[in-house]
Design brief:
This is ImmA/IrrE family metallo-endopeptidase. The chain is α/β, with parallel strands linked by helices and about 290 residues long. The protein is built from 9 helices and 12 strands. The longest helix has 18 residues, at about 5-20.
Length: about 290
């Protein structure tokens, strides 16, 4: 039986140390791929229908499954970065190991906890909910979804962090939130007949130090009025949630609206394979 409390403290200390090395505050969101590369750990996306993730100590590289959804890829990258930080040696993980609350080894539980603390530290959660004037104890599924979008994590992953790790919501609220799914939330906020595998809800409080990362076909709400299409995205509609755009071509765009809201939009090819730093520009030769 693992001592979850002790492992949790080690995970928290490690996550805090890595942020400190890059002078990233504990209350700020991160892009996990940029974060890992800044620590000189290479990040590659690779295919395979049963591939869960991998850390190669010999190549100082983490491998992320190209065929998984974006939130899953983010958590996988943080999980594998944990293996690197704790010097676990080369690790190949299956689909059921990453993010599992009942990991079958001490190392796997440790890096799952590390990934949670790195992507969703308590000060960051308080800051992101607070800036949006959301009361965590009574928050709604769409409010959770907005914060999860900002952090790059999955809806249920954030719900689990609030309940299991930080005990910021009670059991009844946890069960109520867990009845919702990303698919049900998308169907609630998207216009009829618009289908997408992934939706980012970027609101007016979005931290503009974090780019909006989409794959071709993904959609995003942005909190501004746009009146013309871009080479990398098309405008689908305007409604109470904002301007709905859909990524159409690989590349980087700047969204600069008249209301003063601005941010960068980075679009990668669907199921991109290659090094993470090239995902918006195509596959490199090396």
């Amino acid at each position: 039986m693992f001592d979850r409390t002790t492992l949790g403290r080690r995970a928290l200390k490690g996550a805090m140390l890595l942020r400190k090395k890059l002078t990233i505050p504990q209350d700020a969101p991160i892009c996990i791929y940029d974060f890992a590369e800044a620590h000189e750990v290479l990040v590659w996306f690779t295919g395979g229908s049963s591939f869960g993730g991998m850390y190669s100590k010999e190549k100082n590289t983490i491998l992320v499954p190209a065929l998984r959804n974006s939130p899953r890829q983010v958590f996988t990258a943080a999980h594998e970065l944990g293996h690197w930080f704790f010097n676990h040696g080369t690790k190949a993980d299956d689909l059921h190991t990453i993010g599992c609350a009942e990991a079958d080894s001490e190392d796997e539980l440790l890096v799952n906890l590390f990934a949670g603390h790195l992507l969703m530290p308590i000060h960051c959660l308080k800051n992101e909910f607070g800036r949006r004037h959301i009361t965590i104890q009574v928050c709604t599924p769409i409010e959770i979804y907005r914060v999860a979008s900002q952090l790059g994590v999955g809806y249920q992953t954030l719900v689990n962090q609030l309940y299991y790790t930080f005990e910021m919501i009670n059991q009844d609220h946890f069960k109520a939130l867990s009845k919702a799914t990303p698919k049900s939330i998308r169907s609630e906020v998207l216009p009829n007949k618009i289908a997408t595998d992934h939706l980012i809800y970027a609101d007016a409080q979005w931290d503009n130090s974090i780019a909006i990362d989409l794959q071709v076909g993904d959609c995003a709400y942005v909190p501004c009025q746009l009146d013309k299409h871009d080479k990398n995205f098309s405008i689908l509609s305007h409604n109470q949630h904002g301007c709905l755009i859909q990524a159409s071509n690989q590349g980087i765009s700047i969204i600069d609206s008249e209301n003063g809201w601005t941010n960068s939009l980075r679009v990668s090819r669907k199921e991109f394979s290659g090094r993470s730093i090239h995902r918006h520009f195509g596959d490199p030769d090396d």
